[in-house]
Design a protein that fits this description.
single chain, 125 residues, mainly beta, four-stranded antiparallel beta sheet
Length: 125
């Protein structure tokens, strides 16, 4: 299983970015997926997750109302993270995670089986 994340970059505060994560090597729609982020010297932090069907979502309070996750189970095997009204404190390396089984804890990184390589997001004030 491989996860390829893309879409990171630099943006000014208040701007938007969309991250993508494409999964290959397994049946995409069988598992939930999530996004985490990490800054140097800190633990990896949960951001948002989506269920296998796309019908369930769980969002960290720090990004609620600004970040939105979606997935395309049909042709693209891709999960997206739309990030709006970005703040400097959103600066981090963002990781997509895969393999969340039904009934697992959304925000627990140990519940995810596979990880992407990370993509840097930098928000300047």
């Amino acid at each position: 299983v491989q996860l390829q994340a893309s879409g990171g970059g630099s943006v000014q505060a208040g701007g938007s970015l969309r991250l993508s994560c494409t999964v290959s090597g397994r049946t995409f729609s069988n598992y939930g997926m999530g996004w985490f982020r990490q800054v140097p010297g800190k633990e990896r932090e949960f951001v948002v997750a989506v269920s296998w069907s796309g019908g369930g979502r769980y969002t960290a309070d720090s990004v609620k109302g600004r970040f939105f996750i979606s997935r395309d189970n049909n042709n693209k095997n891709t999960v997206y993270l739309q990030m709006n009204r970005l703040k400097p404190e959103d600066t981090a390396v963002y990781y997509c995670a895969d393999g969340l089984r039904y009934g697992s804890r959304w925000s627990d990184e140990s519940e995810y089986q596979y990880w992407g390589q990370g993509t840097q997001v930098t928000v300047s004030s």
